[in-house]
Model the fold of this input.
Amino acid sequence: MIRLNAHRRIAFVSSYPPRKCGIATFTSDLVENICEASGWTIEPVIVAMQSNTSPLSSDAVSFYIDRDAKSDYMEAADFINAGDFDAVSLQHEFGLFGGPGGSHIARMLRRIRVPVVTTLHTVLEKPLPEYHRSLIDVCDCSDRIVVMNERGFGMLKRIYGVAQSKIELIPHGIPDVPFGQSEQYKRQLGLRDRKVIMTFGLIGPNKGIEVMIRAMPQVVQADPEALYVVVGTTHPEIVKRDGYKYADWLRRLVSELGLNNHVAFYNQFVTKWQLRKFLAATDVYVTPYMHKEQLTSGTLAFAVGSGKAVVSTPYWAAEELLAEGRGLLVPFGDSHKLSAAIAGLLGDGSYLATMQQRAYRYGRKMVWPRVGRRYWDSMQALITSEHSRAAAQAGYSQEPAHAYGRYAVRQVQQPA
Done:
């Protein structure tokens, strides 16, 4: 029967805590803020991705999908179809899913009979054929595609042929934190009287941390109280492949450059509350990433929204977030220009404060309550439209709403 009450049941398909990754954290925040935006009238149900080499368990998760087990994807679709759900929210990142180019997830989507809203965390400009085909399939099977910036919007239309009417731009959500309070948190973290430069996130060679370390001698020469704090542990996939070689090499580099009093590693996956403290204590946030092909960055969005002055290489997410004087961009791999930019900010309090204020004002549009409201409004409109269409097709019969329209076709097209 078509349910006419206000309550909705939403399946969230993604990685999820206790898994330690940015998308798991994003999904946890998204669930909380959609629930709040709905007035707590929805029931969120978590369908979580996991690796068979790192099985996880959480009471918050109702169904687990083993990344490489095709049958799990089909069983998850059947779980959703049998569960009287109103919609599915999918967080898409190629590495989360098994199959060529992450193609297993499209098999699941073809089988699902309720509306699907897919958030894309990566859109590739020059994809290999299997990644190109896989993302097109995901978009075809989704009723709405959410991207987080203008570049992603354009790439979806130009490279993947997705209709503009199907795409919605909603920024990456960030916590709503007060402006300032740097000295208070420096005291709490034992960083009093230091000029704090910070990088946060899972550590790997593409993060360019060695470029910032090599920039530190010049920064310290300009400001002897400068301290570079690297917050985060090595990415689990890198640990599986190479162990802690990269992190160990970074520490050796610090010693070789005589920077033991000016570079500190906080080797933990921190909670969002701990991250708030570190960001609040930060003077300059830096993302010296090595490649331009990064469309989203939750850590950069959080830093901008916290009112931090940011120095970054010009990867795609940074180009958009740091435009109009909200931050500084330096060339990839250029330690000299990186040190000059940071030293210039630390040496000019007025310039530093102006950039921080610009960033904070811009960040208000990205705070989670607003982002959660936009997701909920979009999802609710889609659900209402689908229920109305199903009711019209059914002639207001008492048959299940999902037995009509393209969802039945999607079931028939499911490959064996």
In short: Residues 1-5, 397-416 have pLDDT under 50 and may be disordered. The first strand starts at residue 8 and ends at 14.
